[in-house]
Protein: Phage major capsid protein
Organism: Limosilactobacillus reuteri
Amino acid sequence: MLTNCFYISIHHTKVNSPKFYKLCNCKHIETMPINKEIDRRHKQAEIEAALNQPTSKALTNSPTAGKLPKSQDAYAQNFWQMMRGHAVVDALKEGTDPDGGFLVPDEFENQLIQKLQKANVLRTISHVIQTNSGEHKIPVVASEGTAAWLEEEAAYTESNTQFSQVSLGAHKLGTLIKVSEELLNDSAFDLMSYISDEFGRRLGNAEEQAFLTGNSTGQPTGILTDTNGASAGSTAAKADTLTFDDLIDLFYSLKAPYRQNAVFLMNDDTVKAIRKMKDKNDQYIWQPSVQAGQPDRILNCPVYTSPFMPTLAAANKPVLFGDFNYYWIADRQGRTFKRLNELYAVTGQVGFLGSQRVDGKVVLPEAIKTLSMAAK
């Protein structure tokens, strides 16, 4: 009877309160029920503390290695079980998008962003932001006001700074990969790494091409194709050959403030052509960087390459030079995945659809210049 009375008393007593410890130290009761109750109450307190933690965290472009809250750990675990075909869809309903896809866990989204940065050079050198919905309008200076010298008691000349807006929307980009049922059933198969590598490569390549030469039809307008994209810098003397003088002309076509953070962007064939340039003594003019992990430099500015930059041909624009912080990439938050169970069942495969929404635009054309080849 005494033990039962104690159980009722301690059950309604707050953990760590003076009364709780007084009851626990009572010598007239059995210790085993007390110890079990103490353990139960402490576990309950831990669960309540975990439930009071935030259920989500902000997604940044510099992913951290911090551990996710328990609720996100559970969502991530359920997400990957679903991707492998286990029936946990009900637990993921809070993470669905209007099209029926499942939002990827934050940890995986951060990993995918890192893969995109490796696959898409523009994500490395440009300014990347996150948007939630609708158009993102960026106010920019269209023309700057000026000052004027004045005679004694002369009227001030009116000169106002003109502003305009650049709008960033969201274009849908997606891809499909297929995985065999045998691999999915193999617990040693790292599904998360495989999907992040494959989707990162595919989405990154498609992004990079559109950011440079996109035609605006269901995709971003490219830096080279946008009428408000990169501005004209210099024109080469020949239609299919560059000289180092052409690069110097391009360098000084960019205003000095932008040259502080400026980089060159071209394809590998153009880099090779520059690398082969020689002086009158048959010595190579340009010596690439020998420091591991550092980009090559021309005129003390880093050189980056993209296979989607134009070739050295008449009227092409094979080289970009400028501060790419004035090229903005807008990621619409929330990449999604769908699992296709039946479509490829005959061949023993499962399909995975991945999609994202993104846009990109030059917000200040004078900050990025083009080198154009001469027309024939």
